[in-house]
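Q: For a teaching session next week I want to show students how multiple molecules come together into a single three-dimensional assembly. I've collected the sequence lines for a complex. Could you give me the predicted structure tokens for the whole thing so I can convert them for display?
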Amino acid sequence: MKLSSKILKCELSPIRKFAPFAAAARARGITIYPLNIGQPDVETPREFFDAVRNFSAPVLEYAPSGGVEEYLDAVHGYYERLGLPVERGGILATVGGSEALIMALQCVLEDGDEILVPEPYYPNYAAFTQLAGARIRPIPTTPEEGFRYAERERIEPLINEHTRAILFSNPGNPTGNVLTRAEMHVLADIAVEHGLFIVADEVYREFTYGEDAMASMLEFEYARENVIIVDSVSKRFSACGARVGAVISHNAEFMTQVMKLCQTRLCAATLDQVGAAALYRVGPEYFAAVREEYMRRRDTAYAKLMQIPGVVCRKPEGAFYLMAKLPVDNTDNFQQWLLEEFEDHGETVMLTPGEGFYATPGKGVNEARLAYVLKQDRLERAMDLLALGIEAYNKR
Amino acid sequence: MKLSSKILKCELSPIRKFAPFAAAARARGITIYPLNIGQPDVETPREFFDAVRNFSAPVLEYAPSGGVEEYLDAVHGYYERLGLPVERGGILATVGGSEALIMALQCVLEDGDEILVPEPYYPNYAAFTQLAGARIRPIPTTPEEGFRYAERERIEPLINEHTRAILFSNPGNPTGNVLTRAEMHVLADIAVEHGLFIVADEVYREFTYGEDAMASMLEFEYARENVIIVDSVSKRFSACGARVGAVISHNAEFMTQVMKLCQTRLCAATLDQVGAAALYRVGPEYFAAVREEYMRRRDTAYAKLMQIPGVVCRKPEGAFYLMAKLPVDNTDNFQQWLLEEFEDHGETVMLTPGEGFYATPGKGVNEARLAYVLKQDRLERAMDLLALGIEAYNKR
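A: Of course. Below is the structure for the complete assembly, covering every listed component.
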């Protein structure tokens, strides 16, 4: 039997492909410090669990396809408090930010289309694009320039008659970049002038460590028909397992198409939407505490990284990732070696090799993404293990 | 901005498109008896809610992409008790049966491919097929023959070099058909001889009202590489809002591709999988009681339907649907009229017009699907409203 060539071309997740080797290492008694997965360790606010426990309907029914009323209200209120009012029809509940991305790209892309994505990018962007029959045209960046990309001269030459959209995460996964308002203006201008959608994955919105509050692509009134926001409670409230997100846009025609997709898969989980609605009741002190905690971790991870000779990395301003060029020949081989041959007092470390974050062949081979989602002391140890690992690897 | 032609071609769900007219009727004070939506009214077993309430991890983390261990164990055990052992790698957790279908078709179909589907079929099959770039080649049936289709002479002439799979639900939505073991043999034979996948949507497995236990496509050892099972807790345990299902197959290469898709969307909801695992602990007395209840409803709905002059319908053997030819010119117009102009003592009824269940233009225009998911007395009243409605509609 023949399988789809589109799916055959997709690769197993670069973030998860070392899982079997990690399991083998653990079986040998090795402790692994995971810097490879964006699973926050912050406690999920109890508002979620309370709401779920108080759910008292006798039948766990389908939710409306577009989302549970109280969840949509909560998201609506959240954006209103941010000064970014969205009409109710402009918000649809999705199964995490992942489904929001899948749906947005499925509506915007088809066979032969191209989408501009600054590389390095979140690897699933490539899979979702490919499954929609389109391809990524990468906007090139370098670690030396801190992976910045929002420049007209860099982007406009890449636009052709097949280009449909610009897709990016901001704050950036894997780079930790945060776009300035001026940079966002450039992107909005380009989108409007060339008739492109902007798919802005803003799921890390609360995780910024600069002076200014982060801007949202929703701020740019003149680009209101172009902008599609991908949102989620996963990182915002440390509720990744809830799988509740949203697609948000002022573009009514686009939202009608998304609604079709919402209807085909019937609904997102009812109970999790009820829990997610309750999460939006947490106060600003929650975000302040989380931000402070991650900022401290960012500082720790960055400082430790800078002590390793030969590392190239600009201080990231958001999310909970660092993307760095490491002084090794190949981070894929290095990770394999860390799991199979290295240990220090029975411990080793995992990161995510860089190649999977690039569309351009050969790029990222000596880069890696580090997720600083460990508590302070464990994070320090993880970074020390990385330094020891690099040293030992290069002395083989 | 251009939107994907694939999504533009999709239609809003025929099952849900009358929702605004129903809302308007309700606003006028009309009570609506819903025979249109497959939302069971049976209570969700408390095992689900207990498991969810007892969840005590402080962080609601991502589940493994392939599924929560205890849920996979539960599904595995369930199939073992059915005498249909599946290796653990042959089961992957999905976001309801819907995602199982989406993933299966995405792996099996691509642009230009065809899939054989007996019509009338569950309308979302068409959307999922279309989004995968393929098209449905319908296997024709008639209400007079009770919508039966599993015959070599009927199916083989439809196979060509583009055909990749046969897709059906059994017990059937919308027909209520249950395939005999002999009919399933025919389908298995055809699939093996022509190198086709069989995508068997068996989510209504427990809902059969004949003497024999229903067969599963998993029974046919010689077709083990061909068969893909779509499964879900939604109907089995009246837990539609949990959005927990599974793709099941002995075909390892196919399962590897499904795993790629599982990884891209990270996971199905963690808490709902924990609840779903607990559901599999309910005993056979649960299924016996539910089956008895639905059989009584089936009998009531069918008997009442047969009292309406001009109706064509064979007694269905499974699921909780009836598909009938009604003595009206057009069930779409009839439904609209039922919501906008008809009422009896302030009450009316909803069903699902038949056209959306067909790929062949013009077919199903005077057919409708009735879901008998109302308690006995309400079901009787709903069927009486239908009879009154048909009479009044034809006297206009």
